[in-house]
Amino acid sequence: MSERDTKPVHIRDVPADVVDTLQARANAEGMSLTAYLRNAFIEMAGRPTMSEIYQRSWPRPWSIDGETLQHAVREAREEDE
């Protein structure tokens, strides 16, 4: 990642106890707070939200109608009983 690939981010009004906790975690990893938070942001951005997962999952080009699907689910549940 080069300097041109990054943007500065400023976060205001973070509670002091939160900053202290994050600083302690960064120190435990042998990192600066900036590096620790950068890694956390990169990891967070790499995980899709539930909304993103849902949006990616629909619509599916299934060739099965809802009624048939509901019937199959009911049958599967009855088999488990």
Overview of the molecule:
- It is a single chain.
- With 81 residues, the protein is mainly α.
- It has one domain (3-80).
- The protein has four helices and no strands.
- The protein has helices spanning 16-28, 33-46, 50-57, 66-80.
- α1 packs across α2 (33-46).
- It starts with 15 loop residues before the first helix and ends with a helix.
- The model has no long low-confidence stretch (mean pLDDT 89).
Mean pLDDT over all positions? 89
The number of helices is 4
> Which class of secondary structure composition applies to the elements?
mainly alpha
Note the beta-strand portion. Answer: under 5%
Major sheet details: none
The tally of beta strands, per DSSP, is 0
- What series of H and E elements makes up the topology? HHHH
Protein traits:
single chain; 81 residues; mainly alpha
Task: Summarize, please.
The chain has 4 helices and no strands.
Q: Which SSEs are present, and which pair or pack?
A:
Elements: H1 16-28, H2 33-46, H3 50-57, H4 66-80
